[in-house]
Amino acid sequence: MNLEKMNIGAMIKYHRQLRNMTQAELCNGICSVTHLSKFENYNKEVNQETILLLLERLDISLDSIQKASESIAADLSDLLDAVLSYDKKRAEECYHRVEEQREYITFSNYIGSYHLYLYRYFLLINDFESAEKEQETIRYIVNSLAAQEKEIYEYLNAILLMFKGNYKPSLDILLKIEANDLLPSVWKAELYYFIAHNYASLEDSSSCIAYGSKALEGFSRSFNYLRILHTQFLLGVAYTDLGLYENADEQYRFIFRNMNLINAEELLSAMYNNYALLLEKICEVEKAAQYFILSMEHAHTKKEYLMSLCSYTELLISQGKKEEALSNISKILRETKINSMKKQELIFRYYRYLLKDQKEKAMEFLESDVLPYLEKFFFIEDYNKYALSLAKFYSTRNTDKALYYYKKIAER
């Protein structure tokens, strides 16, 4: 029987200790204590007859170990497929099947894959505390991993950084992984997607489209329909930002047509929000307001709701609806502190000064707090937008400062 994936020596030691047996008690009449010790601790080769006798004394069948090895391989493969397909329900079922075999996995060469796939699973379900525990566990065994497994570990660390809002360091790692070309092919489409996602978050829409298109091609080849919708959603945002409104509308229409077919309800809030942003860009303001409200109604998380509320409030500001906007801003500022949305908190503190006719304070806050934050975290489009407001403000007050901010915008 082929047991090359199982560390039988370590397994025998574990079950011997579990039964409070000494080495002498286990190996009596089978082999020497020295021989057993080397087998248990170094997986030193012994003949199959000796293994069978040791397992028999421990009341473990070799056939059950072989079946466990085959089952572990299949269940880990299913878990990875479910996670990469973004099928959360199936992934949870696979996760529980895998966990039932934790004891056998501990004594197998699947231990690296096990912790890596669990790390990715916890990222899928946004359980960042458990993901960080897996990250720490893998850090201790990383030197024993194969080259591809080490690359997957770096890749997962980059995704965790992205989820925490550290887009630039995440992007740098992902681009390095792309250049190394060591990541297994099954992960490649997702790699391109997350590169595109980072570029979108850093407001580099052209690069987002380039990598989003590569992701879309990869997901299409594997018929990964939900991830196709995720990518088209990302492309819709990027096309809107670039003023390619027909292209953006084409992406959104495709998503609206197909999302009900694959039960993609979790996309609804973000979809409505970003479609509203497109409508706002093409001056369909009333319709945009309706979609922002729909987005808030379909939000699954507090953060989704707040993102839509922020977008809707900016629309109100642009329409001169000061009182309603101020009411929303009070709620935004309370909630963004709790939900770690620093960018939105800073921007709406600035808007509150403006709406309360405190323009000098607004510009002072813009210069001292908002712009440094946007620059530090590479929010280029936002930086240029607010730097332009500051440059115009200084144009009649301080020519040197006005020129400084115009120059900063030009450099970007």
UniProtKB/TrEMBL annotation:
Every copy of the HTH cro/C1-type domain together lies at 12-65
Q: Which domain of life is it from?
A: Bacteria
Q: What is this protein called?
A: HTH cro/C1-type domain-containing protein
CDD domains in UniProt? HTH_XRE
Output the Pfam families linked to this UniProt entry. Answer: HTH_3
| PROSITE patterns the UniProt entry points to | HTH_CROC1 (PS50943)
Classification via InterPro entries: Cro/C1-type_HTH, Lambda_DNA-bd_dom_sf, TPR-like_helical_dom_sf
